[in-house]
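Summary for the lay section of the report: proteins are chains of building blocks that fold into shapes. Here we show the chain for WD repeat domain 62 and then a coded description of the shape we predicted for it.
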Amino acid sequence: TWAGVPPLAPPLGVEKPGRDSSSCACVVLEKVLGITAQTSSALSCDPNTGQIAYPTGCVIVILNPQKDKQKHIFNSNGHRPAVRIWDVEEKAQVSEFHGHIHGVACVAFSPNMKYLVSVGYPHDMVVNVWDWKKNSLIASNKVSSKVMALSFSEDSYFVTVGHRHVKFWFLDVSREAKVRGETVPLVGRSGLLGELHDNIFCDVACGQGKLLGNTFCISYSGLLCQFNEKRVLEKWIDLKVALANCICASEGFIFCGCANGTVRVFHAHNLHYLADLPKPHHQGVDVAGQETSQDVTYPDTIALAFDPSHHWLSCVYKDHSVYVWDVKNTGQVGKVWSDLFHSSFVWNVEVYPEFEDNSGCLPPGSFLTCSSDNTIRFWNLENGAQTDVWKNIYSHNLLKVLYVENNTQLLPERGENTNYLDVKSGVRVLQVSPNGRHLASGDRAGNLRIHELRCMEEVMKVEAHDSEVLCLQYSKPETGASLLASASRDRLIHVLNVEKNYKLEQTLDDHSSAITAVKFAGNGDIQMISCGADKSIYFRSAQKVGGGISFVRTHHVAEKTTLYDMDIDITQKYVAVACQDRNVRVYNTVSGKQKWCYKSSQGEEGCPLKVQLDPSGTFLATSCSDKSIFIIEFRSGECVAKVFGHSEVITGIKFTFDCKHLITVSGDSCIFIWHLSPEITTCMKQHLIELAPPCILTNGKLPMWAKRLLGEADNLDGAPFGSRVSYQPQGRWAERADKEPIKTMLGADLNDFSPLKSDSLQDVELEPQNLDRLLLEVRKAFALDLPPERGPPPSVGGTQQEQSAAEVEEMKWWFYPNQVRVCPQPMAKACTRSCRGRSRGRCQQAGPPFSYSSPPPQPWSFLPTALCNLPADEPSLISEAEAEATDLDENFQQSDSLPQTPEQEKLLRHHFASLAGTPPEGNARAG
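The coded shape description reads as follows.
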């Protein structure tokens, strides 16, 4: 029934949110893309409104299919599984019962809403009847078989089905024998199965209206059975399907969900066959295309729920897609709503960059996710973002699905008794190039792929590593080079030259264990920072070697704890590292010295696994091993918000460029979009404005998202900027010493911050500036504009990192020419043919596989002039003056490292299996 959606308990629990009201106000769950329902017991429909409810991790989603709107109820489960009753309108918990040890398989309300029945997991073997208004257990009994489904009759009995099991339980007899204040045994009678006693019955539905007293069951073997009021098998029908999974009954119809997307419809009073519902999408469908394929397969139907008021039938399919069909006329069935989600672990999320005039390959506000289901999916939640090019009949949120190697075998979710086909399958990590044209992805077998996003074609595949690729990183244009770094569990880092058709420039083997993160840094120079499970952080700088490039180690930091992830702030000055000892350590990117160290969480249960800075560098988001998410003020380490929701370890976390949302992905196959409060968003935009004056002094340009935010900063949500109550960070950034730069920025021409060469700047020639002239300009600016008490600007200044705008502009023309609008896919045959031809050409030019031992030096002709003309005796692209300046960063704030408990070590091994070695072959969920 409607309020009886069961909490599917994962192996580890999460704490109930809402204990800290400030956290709930700062971060609110806005939308969930995913579903974790596996049977009809996890799908329910409101007979009055037509809303459907289903679990997504630890969250119950209440969906209005007509409006495509969601409401969310945060569940709580774990070592003590409970049956919880919620008020849907108030989103408040009404009752909570603890009567099961291992988990709750299914629940159901009685027709008069007085009683609630719950059935435990097979190891519990308990059926409980609760008087939920009095918070009491009135009847209970053991069950010897695995129960898979439960249905309540209007005639004071309920039926459970399972392995060779159909049993009728009667409440009237139990109540008569009930002693006041005590729980009495629940009376049950088995159904008379006859020759069908060896079947596994997977779902049950009790008759309604004129069929009161009849019970309908369905078996895995495809048999539809009808029992009369005397528990006798009266008739049965062979559905002629390979597999049957679920059943749903109304007063007039019986719906049977079967394999290959089949839903058969029968008359309820005589079981005469009426029709089949339309099939859903076929496996491997191109949601953005119009093609029709032959010999296709469809996902199995695994859950059904019927809305009698609207005559809507909700169907959940095995590939985690959901359809709502209008079955008022079985001869002309229509679709009300549908969506397609990931069917397995989601490993990574990336936000697509934004460009002027919407010249990118994807609509603004798009993001990408990759999964073990061997797909890369493109999403967009912006209203009106789906133009005619991207509109499709399957989803309002999904733009495109890339099937890696056209492999669709991993799309259906595997059952609990099915072995994984290939533990090395699935896309592990992805990264979008700064110009938005290329998508790099790495899979669990060590392959590196490059996709051209204008035509969505794979243009390159390289067997780059011997084990799964754990991280990919493109260098930003301001670094002066166009490089791609790939790191793997095989302890190697490959540096590829993007402009030379991803030619291998260098292979680094400094690490002695799995590499968990690699980043490029620098502003006019090139730095590479990497960390790994060997507890080491390596800082490297770029050198010219012959005609190529080589990274030389400058600093090596050895910690006493495993390092899981890292991110670099917008100023390129600091790198934040997530450590196993529950700390986040911040280092200077040039000197390698530790600047700050603070706790990543409030409790002592979880350590940070992922870390991500927002686009302004104001806040830091961490995801912990206890499945919690923390938002921390970057400079002070103060916790701003703490939220829960995922039922598995969180594998990816990203802020959107508009500073309004946080996206998290997890091993539970779900994508959560969290809405940040206006106070947090305003604080980010304010920090971006404070960062703008140094950008003007160095002729630099902000990216498109920063430019747009600066334009929005004075009028957020229709209110003046100064009138907003913004979040006040702690520490040295608690308040601004001077507000004049903000007035200057709001009055400035925003074209000065464009990331691309706009039409208004085509006639402007930027002359290259030497280092002495640049330093003189900086000194004058600091003497005239900035007060002494303001302190140094956030960006790295006074050295070679402050590269002139001419050099930056020159690099843009070399690396990233002007964007070309994406061709409409239904009409882009010429574009597709061109891309396919270019794909074949690139594959032919790719040459032999990597020679990882000693790659031949290649000319690096696209280096900026200032970098190519370095003195011959200069070994590094980082000046000594800059290194000396960063050596002044003292006053380290270190906290004691707490040793890991055995329980936490076991948890990390379970989710991040053997980062220091080879993952176990049988554990497909290893990170």
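Put simply, here is one thing we learned. The chain is about 10% helix and 35% strand.
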